[in-house]
Amino acid sequence: MQRHGPGNTVAPRLRATGFLLLVAHLLIVGWLMLRPRTVPWVPAANLQPLASIHAELARGGWAAVWHLGAPVLLLAPLGVLLPLVGGRLNVSPWGSMTRTVFAGVMISLTIELLQSSGRCV
Fold first, then answer.
1. How would residue 20 be classed by pLDDT, with cut points 50, 70 and 90?
2. Measured CA angle at 95 (ends 26, 111), to 5 deg
3. What's the pLDDT score for residue 118?
4. SS3 state of residue 10
5. Could you say which of 20, 60, 84, 97 has the lowest number of CB atoms within 10 Å?
6. What CA dihedral angle connects 7, 13, 19 and 21, to 10 degrees?
């Protein structure tokens, strides 16, 4: 990475590129997760915590791995893009990981709340 200035920060051009990539990635994830789906059925409301995860695990095999792991993989690029946008090179790896995981959880929670709100079914 290019260093800029005495504080060991990433060059502003690289940060801007990272920001544009982050925005593009979040727009694609939002579109994939919140777009209306044309299906002939409407699933029943799930009011029991972790019931859908238990049902997926009961299916077993690659189907369970795919249905549970695919949404996690959609947010995996945040691990690179968020620290790049932050622009600091000499930070604690644990602090960076904590901030990135927290941001991923908040983005995931926001998507889930929007999906369940009924506006984006």
1. very high
2. 25
3. 63
4. strand
5. 60
6. -130
pLDDT grade for 120, boundaries at 50, 70 and 90: very low
Q: Tell me the two tokens of residue 30.
A: 């939002």
Q: Are strands 3-4 and 9-10 parallel, antiparallel or unpaired?
A: antiparallel
CA distance 92 to 58: 39
Provide the pLDDT confidence category of residue 57 given band limits of 50, 70 and 90: confident
Long-range contacts, stretch 20-27, CB < 8 angstroms, 24+ apart: 21/81, 21/84, 22/78, 22/81, 22/82, 22/84, 22/85, 25/77, 25/78, 25/81, 26/107
Answer whether 78's CB lies under 8 Å from 107's CB: yes
Q: Residue 97: which residues within 8 A CB-CB, separation 6 or more?
A: none
pTM, full prediction:
0.70
Residues 31 and 101: beta-carbon distance below 8 Å: no
